[in-house]
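Before relying on records like the one below, remember that each one covers exactly one chain. Contacts with other chains, cofactors or solvent are not represented anywhere in the record.
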Amino acid sequence: MKNSTEILFVLQGLNETMSTKQTYYVITLLAYLFTILVNLTLIATIILEKTLHEPMLIFLCNLCVNGIFGACTFYPKILVDLSSELSVTPYKACLAQIFVIYSSVFCEFNTLAVMTYDRYIAICKPLNYHSIITPQKVVKLLLFTWLFSICESAFAVVLIARLPLCGFKIQRIYCGVWAVVKLSCVDTTINNVYGTILMIFHFSQVVLVLISYVNIIKASVRSPEDRSKFMQTCLPHLIALTSFSFAFLFDLLYARYGPTDRLLAFRNFMSLEYLIVPPLLNPLIYGLRLTQIRRRIFRLRCQKIRALK
C-alpha cells in the first residue's frame, strides 16, 4: 500500500512506437484546433447576432462552451503523452483530469436533456412556449447544467481521494474513475454504489428524452412548420444524444465489468469517441441544419472577404 499522493500513474493505453505517435500527434493537434475553431465560431455567431438570442440557441451555445471546456483539458495532456516515450501523470493531476472530464460529460447529458425539454415545449405546446421558457427559466436551467454536473464530479473525486492505492498502472489513454478505483487496496462499495446511481440517473435522462421524442414526432406531423422545426433542431439533437450516450455507456460498462487484456484498440476508440466527436460534431450539425446560424456565418464571411478587398 502506497501513499496515494506520491503515486505517479503510468497510462498504458498508448503502446505505439514513437513514429506512430508522431502521426497521431499531428492528427490530434489538428482535431484540437478545429474543435476550438468551430465551437468558438458558433459561440461568437450566437452572441454577436441579437436575433439568435433564442432559448434553444442559448442552450446550443452552452453545449459549445462545454465542448471547449472538455477539449482544453483532454487534448493538451494527450498531446504531451504523444510527444513522450512514456505516458505518466501525477496523482493530483489525474484526479483533476477526472474531475474536469466527468464534469464535461455530465454537463453534456444535462444540456441535451434541457434542450429536449425546450424542443418538447416548442413543438408540443407552442402557444405556451414563451410563458414557460422565460429568460429567468433559461438562466436557471443553465445554472443547473453546470452546478449539478460539477457537484456530481466533485463528489466522485472525493470518494476516490479517500482510497489507498496498491498499484500505479492505468489501462487507459487518460485517467478514468474506474481505472483508479480498481487500483484500491480496500473495499470500494461506496464508490460502486455512487457510480451506479449516477449511471441510472443519466441513462434515465436518455430514456425520458427518447419518450419525449415520441411525443415530438407525433406533434411534428401536424404541419409543415412543425416538421421543419423537427428536422432543423430535433434531428441533429437526437443524433448527438444517441452517439454520445452509446459510446459513454459502452466505455462505462467495459471499464467496470470488461477484461482489461482484450480489445485494447476498440476500447481506446470508444473511450475517445464521446470526448472527441461531440465537441467536433455538435457545432457542425447544428450550424449546418439551423438556417439562421448558417446564413449569419456566411454573411460574416462575405463581410470579411469584402473588407480584405
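The longest strand covers residues 8-11.
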